[in-house]
């Protein structure tokens, strides 16, 4: 491809002797240095993989992986998780009517509720997720449709959002405040959880809406324009996203600090999911005391303000209640995979051992006739 | 395209072959093919001439008009200047497909619907590549610029019209027509016609080392009639007009004429032209007129860029890259179709951004997006990497101590940079003989004069001694025998003290010195070997008759030479001394001027008188050949067959042959013949009879060994007293001959353009008028000098040349029957001797002479001058003229010159043959010589079967080929029967006897023809080796071409001379040996080594390494790209084939460019799959790379499959671990990337055969740089990289244990199959590699101990040869034998 010239000097056709024409000068020997590097004699480790050398590694891997796998599996199994599908695709579902009637253009909200029973109490903090299926948040056009500068509180980007936001960049000539398709499609169902105690009264389970976003997102990546003071002023001259009912500075009426771009529900939504079936953290149910479980077993009542249509693209909506461990949510895959790989290595180790004994006889024959 | 290149190549090659042949008068030059020449050369526009006037002469006006079009002497070799650098360089770079591809991708990314990444990011690869190359180009160009500047500003003295004097000017200001004044050791600034030289004979010497590397001096001549005109040359008085051909690149040709104001035209030829960049030597001052300047000079026009050869591996690689393209296309197509289908099934999704696009169109757009996303699959950076790796490999080859020649202080020179791996795949080696297998240091060995052979036994003994000593040199130091060490010391050319120490002291001194010089002995010895010849006592004795006034007329005794024989001997040595182009210089005489001829001891008249005083006169005896004198005594001669097999004339005293006879002589006749011993020590004694010195009676003591010895000693001592002359010859044969002549005190003392100064034994210095030199020509295969004999005044032609030609031309004069008889006999004897020389492997030459009558000479001279001054067809005319002269020669004698084998040639050849390389020897030598050399360098083994093919016609040739083929077939069949019974694995070692084909040039011509080609190929393929003798350079290249093309094998040609150039260029790998024959072979080669033995290390170790390194690196590179790109591809299944990536775009682009780019380079430069010692010890291992076992299509597909598997694991383990969770895109990408990095790096650890601290360091740095980079991004990149915003991702990920668990599982799972494959492959199917590799370790550790113990127990100190005692080797050898 590229004809480089290592020895251009000779090729130039310049009289190379011309330079040395002044006098003989010191004649330097052209003898190459006798260094280990130049003579390619650096001390080296030569890994030669044979059955004999490899089999200990297999055994060791097997011995390490199997316990890890068991540990992971047990941990995963200890995590309690409950999932409620409230899409309303099924005619028997309570949300069927809401799902049928609701579209983005509806002005009134549709409310439906789901009852469910927790068989086991959830002991530690419970994380409440909403889950969406068949929702391609990772679609290339969708992923790009945002303006990070705007979300970071940049004034100029606020008024003049990036072109990537098209066609959700301006509305009626005014720039859309969180521009782009991601913001526009913000998940806007409201979920309320009630515990139905033995005498049938509904006790609202306190849902904490702070701390659901990543720290870095909340404090570094997302910032309101013009400080956090008067958001209405800050967002003056911008339009709300087309699908939104309220402007961005009125997302959380209950907490003025949770408004604007730093609204945590918004932040969570803006971190686009990797896969078409995903969950996003909605609320946290904090453990109150060490004695009582966070969510005791029993009957629960989930109240849903159904705003988010998913049936049009065969999507699904779920609510997930889950405790978490050090390894995150419930996922038996890793444990099983570790155990499988570990045992496979062990098995292969045995096979290699046999092969080694049968074929690898080099060492035994290395003897000098005496 | 390919074809076109080939034609270009061919043309250039022919051109070069042409220029070579003129410039170097080497044997076997390319035959002149001017017709071809004219076709190929773009520069030779016939009919166009340039006219040059003196710049400050009277033709000012004309000068102005004419010279305007001539280039000035400024040279500019730079490609760019400051302004044009960027556009020009970019333009150059975009000629490369790779860069165009990058550009295409970058532009593609500007299309909004297709856009995959930010626009800047896709520019990165392109920018990186462009910048790297631009920097390299800029540096190179800058270096050239500095060099040009330096050259252009060199000072030179040029005649200035205003000041009427020579003033200092810069080179660049020199114009055509300027008069340039140069002194000794100055460099010539432009092509100059020599007008004046301080040398009285108008000669000037130049050294062309800057041009072609030759350090010997070449003679140039002032334009012929200027010398006669001018007393002192002055530029103002130069009114002549020079007409010459337009600038061309032929170094050896210059044609034109100079027209004086009087209208007289004088021919100009190459001898008048001083070429730019040569150096003036041995001449005080020189003035010349510039005819070509700057880029129009021949030196500059000969500038060609570096060679570029495309290697086999690269061609193979291109095929695989095409597969990658196919793969890319399939993947993109899958994505496009998938996206289309996916879109079709979607109804009004909330995440759909632009709905108006139809699925088909969207699919089409995605196709292009995917090409951008998956661009890494086409490993464009691989090309850059390969270049870098090859530079690294070259660096190590260049630095190898084993390829360094201590004596010449020269390393291997790598001129082609991109075919290192071809060294590992050589299947056919074509070697020249002379200078390649042999030293090309010619040593005069034996000669035959007048049909009498002089075996020079002591000389031969000495040579043999030397060789023996050489072989033993490694084992023990040897004491040198006295007689021979004296001689070796006595003739050391320079700096030798000329004290008259006694023999004994000399002895001891030399011994000590030899021991001291033990290390450097070889070279020191060699040069001495060449210069010194121990004279043959018999011949010395005969020669002594010359200086002895005693007449050998009473031919009773066989030891006495006849006068005719003596004249032959004298003529023979005279021819040896003068028939050459040797330049004489001596340290005491810095200027190479002919020493004053006034020193002879007596005037010519005296000598003449002296000769007449003798009863015989060598010079008058010469004339006996001419008819009248023969006639005068026809009956007086008869043959006698002497015991010593020598012929002498028994001339009865009554009938003396010629000349006047003095009474003194007749009285001497009657007395016994005396041997005059020391007369020649005091030359004044000649002609007087000194009774003291009559020591022995010849008739009784035929050869008195003591006497002869003394004689020899006397000779050598006298030689010591000689001026220490240094001979610089263009070809080593000449030098050897001159030295031989000198050993017989026939010393060439000096040379000028028209005279030679020669010492003759017994006569003293003589000035011989040199009339013409007809230089060596490969068509004529001989050279001649025409001289006027100093004594007889006759015009004599001395010729030396190849025996085949000279024997044919040496015709016996038809007149005298007896003379005819003598000549036939001489010829018969000489032929016999020639044959025996050839059998011994000596190079043979015939020496002949011819006496011209005055009228004859006049006629010839006229036509010759005409030929010389013609512009058109000069070469042909001169050739013809020379051929006219060189007829009817009288054969004087023949010489045998030994050309010893280089050290370790047999070992090297054996190793190469064991490595499965077929060796062909292509030589211009005779069949016997070639076979003999083949024997001595072990190409031929005693039990090999020799097949010879010599035939005169095509039909015979066809028949012979057929017959030989059948014979080989028969033998092979029987062999395979035997071997199949024995169930032998290795066929090479099993073949008891193999076939060697010996074919001569003429038969080869037939065999190379279209219809016999296949037969010849078939036959030669089955032979272990082929020896082509009497082959021309053209045939050599034809053979190489045939084998390379028809068999599709990789060929290597090695040679040292100009006659090998075409072969070297034709072969896949051309290797030049920088030897005695100038630099032409080196200049056209890919690698230049100084010794044949270096080939074994170069091929067996470096070739093997380079090939396996490069092949492994390419595979690894492809693996790496496929593996990484597939991760992105699998993700498409989860993002609706929309072209999303789960990685930060920066990381994606830089991953290949930075994080994983250095380890493969290190791998490609440093990996050693086997140790050097092992490879050298077991050349069979070479066959692994030769048959490209590493890089076969199946390996490519295995690699791709493995990459697919690994990417599947690497994607799906994190996928399942995170499926359904709240992981964001980058959160998924983070463990995938990290484990991909681990897998890719660890994969390399598994694949590399050696790991040094450099590997470890690079691997750690690579891994570290990735983590450093992503962590930095995740901390600082807040809005830098929309939309994939990495802030906080990696820091969070890496703080979670899950990340590490995922990475560990992924890495291990991905690598298991590779480990398993390697382990099982190595265990179940252990190649020679693995069987032997532990041997290394065992050797060094346990084995060594065990050996010691074993040795102790057996009380044997001697080491056993490797292999026989090595346990690691036992199974393999056992299986081979059984």
Descriptors:
heterodimer, A: 370 residues, alpha+beta, four-stranded antiparallel beta sheet, 10 strands, 29% helix, disordered N terminus, disordered C terminus, B: 1378 residues, nine-stranded mixed beta sheet, nine-stranded antiparallel beta sheet, 49% helix, globular, ATP-binding (chain B), nucleotide-binding (chain B), P_typ_ATPase (chain B), EC 7.6.2.1 (chain B)
Question: Would you give an account of this structure?
Answer:
The complex is a heterodimer of chains A (370) and B (1378). By secondary structure, chain A is of the alpha+beta class. Chain A has 2 domains: 55 residues; 243 residues, no CATH class. Chain A is 29% helix and 16% strand. In chain A, the strands form 3 sheets. Chain A has a 4-stranded antiparallel β-sheet with strand order 1-10-3-8. In chain A, strands 2-9-6-7 form a 4-stranded antiparallel β-sheet, with no helix packed on it. The longest helix of chain A is centred in the N-terminal third of the chain and has 28 residues. Chain A is extended. Chain B is an alpha+beta fold and 1378 residues long. Helices cover 49% and strands 14% of the residues of chain B. Chain B is built from 50 helices and 35 strands. In chain B, the strands form 7 sheets. A 9-stranded mixed β-sheet of chain B has the order 14-35-34-33-15-29-32-31-30, with helices on both faces. The radius of gyration of chain B is 38 Å and the shape is globular. The relative contact order of chain B is 0.09. The N terminus and C terminus of chain B are likely disordered. At the A-B interface, helix 1, helix 2, helix 4, helix 8 and strand 8 of A face helix 6, helix 7, helix 12, strand 14 and helix 43 of B.
